[in-house]
Amino acid sequence: xxxxxxxxxxxxxxxxxxxxxxxMGARQMRVSWGLNxxxxxxxxxxxxRVGVPALVDHAARAWQAAKSTPYSARYFxxxxxxxxxxxxxxxxxxxxxxxxxxxxxxxxxxxxIAEELRQKKxxxx
Length: 125
What we know:
Blueprint: H1 18-26, H2 37-50, H3 52-65, H4 77-82, H5 102-124
Helix pairs in contact: 1-3, 2-3
């Protein structure tokens, strides 16, 4: 069983998990990392898919919601492996995705009427 803060052998698949172990420790979430080989692979895949920051944020929320202090990384594993992929940035998108809606047209018409009334009021005053 690995003790918190103990370096993980970088030649094993567990080496990619070390940044998560370090980040969890930095946030005062110290747990046992005694996982079986299949669990190490699941965790490595989750890190590759969503990244360490997302896993640490998820763990922090789970830590706060836990009825008792989690003692093993296994506590977080189902949540970590269930996280959705990190969204890919595809560049800026247009806020207008097609023709204006009826609501948009109505609001634009009402704004135009309001502006006409303001102009008449200022011109007549």
